[in-house]
Amino acid sequence: MTPRDGRPWLPVALLLLQVPGCWCLSGPTSVTGTVGGSLSVQCQYEEKFREMVKYWCKSPCVWSTVKTKEADLEESNGRVSIRDHPANLTFTVTMENLTEGDAGTYWCGIVTSWLPGYFLDPTFLVVVSVTPVPSSVRPTRTPGLHRILPAPTWSTMTPKESPNPSQYPGSLLGSVHFLLLIFLKVPLFLIMLSAVLWVNRPQ
């Protein structure tokens, strides 16, 4: 290609069409969501693209993740949905049930070329970040507070075992001897003492 062709600007024009962040599209440069949560991205376009198909894709953007079909009608593909709002020249992309694998570079785009791969479409780059769910904070124990135990009940109390006499032979023999002393030996001693006194009484 030479200046005589009258088209020396063509390579430059094709290069500009592939530059991220086309002036005819705008939106947030980055968004952040949490694992298990959702996030939304709103892209603004110019009036001349009102009737064209809009899409959302992840880099390298060989195929679109999801794209519009009709105005104000939500289209979805798995956990990703898109809706075009021609009244305010915007379209919104929503990603739900986020995972860490969803993080990466995405593109808001408008179909203007028949070429595959969306190389000549106006696009806008958006960086998506997904953070893990914060770990729950463990409850701190307040000093000075003690755990209050429930009052014991009959069902929780262990009955005290009564002593087994066979386990204490010495104490058993002592009690038998005491009974013999009271009921047999003492009366017998008193009878004998009385007899002696009767025999030795003064005449």
UniProtKB/TrEMBL annotation:
Residues 1-24 form the signal peptide. PROSITE patterns: IG_LIKE (PS50835). InterPro entries: CD300_family_receptors, Ig-like_dom, Ig-like_dom_sf, Ig-like_fold, Ig_sub, Ig_V-set. SUPFAM superfamilies: Immunoglobulin (SSF48726). GO terms for molecular function: transmembrane signaling receptor activity. It comes from the Eukaryota. This is CMRF35-like molecule 6 isoform X5. It comes from Zalophus californianus (California sealion).
